[in-house]
Amino acid sequence: MNRLYEKTKLGNLELKNHVVMAPMTRSRSIGNVPGDIVAKYYEQRSEAGLIITEGTSPSPNGLGYARIPGIFSKEQTSAWKQVTEKVHNKGSKIFVQLMHTGRIGHELNLPKTAKVIGPSAILAKGKMWTDEQGMLDHPVPKEMSKEEIHSTIQEFVMASKNAIEAGFDGVELHAANGYLLEQFLHPSSNQRTDEYGASNENRIRFVLEVTKAVSDAIGKEKTGIRLSPYGAFNDLFPFAETHDEYSLLAEKLNEIGIVYIHLVDHSSMGAPVVEPKTVSAIRKHFKGTLILSGGYDATRANKDIESGNADLVAFGKPFLGNPDLVTRFQKNLPLANFDEATLYTPGEKGYTDYPLA
């Protein structure tokens, strides 16, 4: 029997297999509310034991991209209920990924009173799509005051409570890929001189405070986090203290006692390889579940699960064009390609119209 397809546990949840659907932004939530097609999309992909949703903002300030969902309003929370119901009816579990985009955004994508914020007023190189004016440069973010730091922590807490109300089995804090939580972890985006910057201990403080507050609010067994050491997304690149900082972070996350760390390796997309010593250090310091993702096929996934390198393996792109990915893996069927042109366009085309094998 292939371990990948056997039942397993995630904290106190039973998963029907070791396959995780990785979080992927799809920009289908008109008005930042997930509609019927979003529910259909996740229902189609519920062969995964665990689904982690696309990045979902805990705050109006975190809606940096066009048409991404939030989970800070009653309307959004209510809309997510049909997603969780459909996935649960198929026997899968689902966590919502809480993604605050921080400095990666544009005012034209935000509600009127919201603003682009970050740990420091440092511009991220790159452009952002806006439905109104097309591609525009990222703006310089407003440096967050201590009051804004504390209110943002509370936004994560409220969003987590909303997630549980909406029927999610837990939340994943998105501290990867260059968004707000990682912006605090990184010395190029975080040049603060207060207790939130200037040393490894200080740079990890905001992430730990968010994690502790969320796990206190909804339960540590319902709280996970995604990290991307050695990532190269959104103008954040590996730095001299990457290994030491992430080793320390894993140790402190273990003390909080969250259910999982989801470690993403973007080398298959051109980023540097995650140093094996860093993965080993995280594995050593963190005693909870370790989810690995990045360029996996079924064979390598099973190998890493059997060897104990990973407890669960997440697949992203293969799930886009193959809603029945687990069946295709098990029957050794060819995988369909996905349409790059419709990754972020509104509507069902290239979203819910991929056929089963």
From TrEMBL:
Keywords, alphabetical: Oxidoreductase
Asked whether the UniProt record includes Oxidoreductase among its keywords, one would answer yes
Q: Which SUPFAM superfamilies match?
A: FMN-linked oxidoreductases
NADH:flavin oxidoreductase/NADH oxidase N-terminal domain residues are 4-335
Give the Gene Ontology MF terms in alphabetical order. Answer: FMN binding; oxidoreductase activity, acting on the CH-CH group of donors, NAD or NADP as acceptor
Q: What does the record give as cofactor? A: FMN
- Does Oxidoreductase count among this protein's keywords? yes
The record's section on InterPro entries has: Aldolase_TIM (IPR013785), OxRdtase_FMN_N (IPR001155), Oye-like (IPR045247)
Q: A single GO CC term, please?
A: cytosol
Tell me its family.
Belongs to the NADH:flavin oxidoreductase/NADH oxidase family.
What this protein is called in its record is: Alkene reductase
Organism, by scientific name, is Leptospira jelokensis
